[in-house]
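Incident log entry.

Two folding requests arrived from the same account within the same minute. Monitoring flagged them as a possible duplicate submission, but the sequences differ. Recording both here for audit purposes.

Request one:
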Amino acid sequence: MNNNPDDMEARYIAMIENNVNVSKTSDLKEFFILVAGIIVLSIFVFMCADFIAGVWIDNMPDKTQIKIENIMSYGAEDFQLSAPSNQFASQLEFLNRQKLKIINFDKKLQGKSKFDIKVYPSKDLNAFVVPNGTIFFTAGMLGEIKDEQMLTFVLAHEMAHYAHRDHLKGSGRQIIAGVILSLLTSGQNNSLTKLVENVSTFNTLTYSKKQEKNADLFANSVIIKLYGNNNAAVKFMQLIDEKQNIPQYMHYFSTHPAPSERIYLLKHNR
């Protein structure tokens, strides 16, 4: 047997050149395993972070929650119109009456926020709540929506976000998941870090959509109790669908579910 090092090296080189015992797919297979592992790990981290944040916020004293919410809402007062137009006066009066009825539906809404209702200077058809419970209806929303049941549905939806503590839980989840993932990817290459960031963004959107659906269900139960049906909720979402006119695939990158999904949810919870 010839053990000449030069001959052995030559045979090894020949094996590589002839692809002997060398898999063309090994590198690709390892790459896909790595990507799949990162995705599974990121999802698991977000699930753990969501659970920890939920337990943490649910057991946090009310006074502490309110302090954090006020800090997170700093500057929100600057959003409102300096002098709301008289054309919105009757709607604002109605909404302020309805909020008192909605508060009685959930103990989590009682004694924690005044739920001030203000007008946001935008032509968009939108409404949102800031962490301290202040609710903003855009001028576009109040100008377009005159139906009282629709307005009640939107108001209840925004109050649900506060009742569920979505702002606090969302921030807590992001902080916890961010710290864990940063530790896991510390010192890794840019490509790996970027992949983790993209998966994290997708997970964030997924949880945001879940929060929106839960808020829809809360608002749905409110208007059914108040009016006996949820026809106005379905009509409102149909109107949103018409106004948005967004391609279906774009909703995968949105914080909100597609209107068609929300309509389906409402129709099957009457």
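Request two (distinct sequence, not a duplicate):
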Amino acid sequence: MEEDLSLKTIISLCKANVFDILEAGAIGHSGGSLSILETLIALYYKIAKIDAKNPKWEDRDRIILSKAHACEAMYAVLGEKGFFPKEKFKEFLHFNSILQGHAEICTPGVEYSGGSLGQGISFACGLAYSARLKKKDYKVFCILGDGECHEGEVWEAAMFASHYKLDNLYVIVDYNHYCTLGDVDEIMNLKPLEDKWKSFGWETIFEKDGNNIKNMIDNFQKLENMSGRPKCIIANTLKNNGVPSWEKEHIHHIAGQKLFDGLEEGRHLLKK
């Protein structure tokens, strides 16, 4: 059935799922979840080799959400793909739920338990290097936050991947320009971010509209034809994409009346 759905429809369904998850928890990381939703849909629906009926398939591609606080987006897509029943959304943040406030491996389809930023890319490097040692052809996709790129461990891992020519490793930097403390470039200037990744020996593409799913799919396909180097897409995205009132305030973590007002606004726009 999913093959018959347009990408536009899938985005709407998954965005509605994000809203349902946030409502169930009455709190959550809206900003970074809504900025990476199109990237995750591109991966799970068009790029990555996965099987929702066999989530531990040995030859599957691995998708690592290093910015694990953006789990609402991952849960939304995993539920839509059938990794678990969508009824589980109602249990977000509940005691003993498989859907907690940071992505964890207790959730079917989740490959990495995150929380401390900067560590997911090192984990992804290990998976990519392991594939080579085992003579496997699976790919590893790692989603980083832009604020996460302030962490030194990110650049240690970047050097490791370049040194070992891990061309089965793809990093996507969610460049939504805001982290918990404010504007990422005011806190610690990342620019020129594209040149930084290139200087570390990575094939790098800067995508000016990282919320355009067709552009993201094209970028993944371009990089797939390149070999000998790890690969990076810097996706220029909009925090809280799809909820204008949240977009204006660059909201990171949301609760209370502002959450419920934004949910009403976002759902109304989805119906148009």
